[in-house]
Specification:
The chain has 500 residues and is an alpha+beta fold. It is 40% helix and 29% strand. The longest helix is centred in the middle third of the chain and has 37 residues, at 248-284.
C-alpha cells in the first residue's frame, strides 16, 4: 500500500517538472566542471627550447677483459689476487707445463745437434764478410729474444712487480753468500741490460760497429747468465717449510723454468760466440780452405731451421700455459685455485684498466635522431643522489640495434670528462644528454598539438565563445614539455591545451 502511494506521488505533474529542472542543472554543472578539468588556455610567447634525452646506464671500466686458457690443465701457480695491480704482460695464472718442458728440452737438443753437424760442414769454408756480418746480427737478435724470454716469461713468475723499480721475491733467501736483496737487485739490473740490448739492436745500421755491438751484448748476456745461476741457487733452497705460502707444485715449476731458461741461454751464448768468431775470421781473412760443397751446407742449414721451428712451435704451446694481462690495471676476479683443473675457454681471471671509467646505456629509437657523438651529458649517480653532477661526453654509438622488451635501442658509450675517485664500476648512472637549444622562439605545450593526415594542428581561442583550428609547423621538442612552433602562430595567441 505504501509503495503504491510512493509511486503515485511521483506521477504528479509538478513533481515531474521539478525533477526535469534538477537533472538539467546537474548536467550543466557537470559539464562546466568537466570543461574546467580538461582544458586550459596557454599564451604563446618567446622562450628557450632545449632538447634533452634522459636514459639510465651502468658505469663500466673504459677497458675490461675476461681471460681464459686456450687449453685445459691443472693450476700450478696463482700469481695475482683480487685487488692486485698488474702491468701489460704480467703473468696471472699458470697451469702445469711439465710435458711441454720435456718436449722443449728434446727439441732444443735437436737444434744443438743439427747446428753441430752444420759446423762440421762449414769448417774450412771461406766466409763472405757481409754474410757473416748479417749472420752475427741475426744471432745477437736471437740471443736477446732468448734472454728476454728467460727473464720475463720464466724468472718473473716468482717475483712481485718485477718490472717496477722495486722487484720483490715471493720467498725469502737465507744464505751466507746469497740473500733476497742480491737477487732483487740483480732483477733490476738485468731489466736495464735487456732494455739496453733492445735499444742497441733496434738502432743497428749497415755501417754500425758490429764488433763493438757484439762485445757489449756478450757482456750483457754474461751478466744475465750469472743472474740466472744465482737465482737457481736461491730457488733450490726454497721449501714449503721456509716458504709456507708457496706450494710444492709452484717450487717444482720454478725449478723447471729456471733449468729451461739456463739451458736456452747457454745455447744462445754459444751461438753468439761462434757467429762472432766467424765474422772476425772473415774480416781478417783467416779462413782460406774450402770444405763441403754449397749444396750440402744449404741442406744442413735447412735441417737447423726445421729444428728451430719445432722449438718455436713448442714455445708457443708453452705460452698457452700462462695467462698474461693484456692491459695495465687491477684484478677484479680470480677464480683459479692451485691444484684444480681448469678448462679451455672458461673465464679464470678478470682485469679492469686503470683508465677513466665509462658509462654504457641504451638510446631508444625515438630519441636516436636527437643525439650524436660529441654531445655533452650531465650525469648523476644513484650512490650520491641527484645533487651531485658529473660531466660526460657521448663517445660511441652502435650502428646496429639492440632489442629490449620489444623496443629497438642503440648502445651508447659515454666518457667521464674528469677523473673522480668517487666513481666506481657497476654504479647506476642517470644521464641527461644535452641536444639542440633554440633561444627566443615561440613554443607551446606538446599536448596542445594534434596530428591528422600527416599535418599538425592546434586550437586557438578567438574570443570567449569562439575557437579556431590552425595548422602549424613544429621544430624541436624540449625537455620541459614545450615544442617549438616554426610557423602558424604568433606571440600572444591563446592556445587551448587539453588535459590528458
Amino acid at each position: 500500500m505504501k509503495l503504491f502511494r510512493f509511486i503515485s506521488y511521483f506521477k504528479k505533474p509538478w513533481v515531474i517538472a521539478s525533477l526535469i529542472v534538477l537533472i538539467i542543472i546537474i548536467g550543466l554543472i557537470a559539464r562546466g566542471s568537466q570543461s574546467n578539468a580538461t582544458e586550459e588556455i596557454f599564451e604563446v610567447k618567446s622562450t628557450t627550447v632545449s632538447e634533452e634525452v634522459s636514459v639510465t646506464g651502468k658505469v663500466k671500466p673504459a677497458q675490461a677483459v675476461d681471460l681464459s686458457f686456450e687449453k685445459a690443465g691443472k693450476v700450478t701457480t696463482v700469481l695475482k689476487d683480487i685487488g692486485d695491480e698488474v702491468r701489460v704482460g704480467t703473468v696471472l695464472v699458470r697451469i702445469s707445463a711439465s710435458d711441454i718442458l720435456a718436449d722443449l728440452a728434446q727439441a732444443e737438443a735437436q737444434v744443438r745437434y743439427q747446428k753441430a753437424k752444420l759446423a762440421e760442414l762449414e769448417v774450412g769454408v771461406t766466409f763472405d764478410i757481409d754474410t757473416t756480418k748479417m749472420s752475427l746480427i741475426s744471432t745477437l737478435q736471437s740471443a736477446y729474444t732468448t734472454a728476454d724470454d728467460a727473464i720475463r716469461n720464466k724468472v718473473d713468475s716468482f717475483f712481485i712487480n718485477p718490472e717496477s723499480g722495486f722487484p720483490r721475491l715471493r720467498f725469502a733467501v737465507q744464505g751466507s753468500s746469497l740473500n733476497s736483496s742480491t737477487i732483487e737487485t740483480g732483477r733490476l739490473e738485468v731489466g736495464r741490460r735487456l732494455q739496453s740490448m733492445q735499444s742497441m739492436l733496434n738502432s743497428v745500421q749497415p755501417n754500425s760497429d758490429i764488433e763493438e755491438l757484439s762485445t757489449r751484448i756478450k757482456r750483457d748476456l754474461g751478466e744475465i747468465k750469472l743472474f740466472l745461476d744465482n737465482t737457481a741457487l736461491a730457488v733450490n733452497m726454497v721449501t714449503t717449510d721456509n716458504a709456507p705460502h708457496v706450494t710444492a707444485a709452484e717450487i717444482t715449476d720454478w725449478k723447471a723454468d729456471l733449468s729451461s731458461a739456463r739451458s736456452t741461454l747457454n745455447t744462445a751464448i754459444t751461438n753468439v760466440l761462434t757467429a762472432d768468431e766467424k765474422f772476425r775470421s772473415a774480416k781478417s781473412g783467416g779462413v782460406q780452405t774450402v770444405g763441403a760443397n754449397a749444396q750440402k751446407i744449404e741442406a744442413q742449414r735447412a735441417q737447423v731451421a726445421q729444428a728451430q721451428a719445432q722449438v718455436a712451435k713448442i714455445n708457443a704451446e708453452l705460452a698457452k700455459t700462462s695467462i698474461r694481462s693484456p692491459i695495465a690495471g687491477i684484478v677484479t676476479a680470480q677464480d683459479a685455485k692451485v691444484g684444480e683443473i681448469v678448462y679451455a675457454n672458461t673465464k679464470v681471471v678478470s682485469v679492469i684498466s686503470n683508465a677513466r671509467y665509462a658509462i654504457e646505456a641504451n638510446i631508444p629509437e625515438a630519441d636516436l635522431a636527437k643525439v650524436k657523438i660529441g654531445q655533452k651529458a650531465k650525469v648523476t649517480l644513484d650512490a650520491y643522489g641527484s645533487d651531485v653532477e658529473f660531466q660526460a661526453v657521448l663517445t660511441a654509438l652502435d650502428p646496429a640495434e639492440t632489442v629490449i622488451d620489444g623496443v629497438p635501442t642503440y648502445k651508447a658509450s659515454f666518457q667521464f670528462i674528469k677523473a673522480d675517485d668517487r666513481i666506481r664500476s657497476g654504479m647506476t648512472a642517470n644521464i641527461d644528454i644535452q641536444g639542440q637549444s633554440h633561444q627566443n622562439v615561440l613554443a607551446i605545450p606538446q599536448r596542445a598539438i594534434t596530428s591528422r593526415d600527416g599535418e599538425k594542428y592546434v586550437l586557438i581561442q578567438k574570443d570567449k565563445e569562439t575557437t579556431e583550428e590552425v595548422k602549424v609547423k613544429t621544430g624541436i621538442r624540449g625537455n620541459n614539455g614545450l615544442t617549438e612552433i616554426v610557423s602558424g602562430l604568433k606571440a600572444g595567441d591563446m592556445v587551448v591545451v587539453r588535459q590528458k
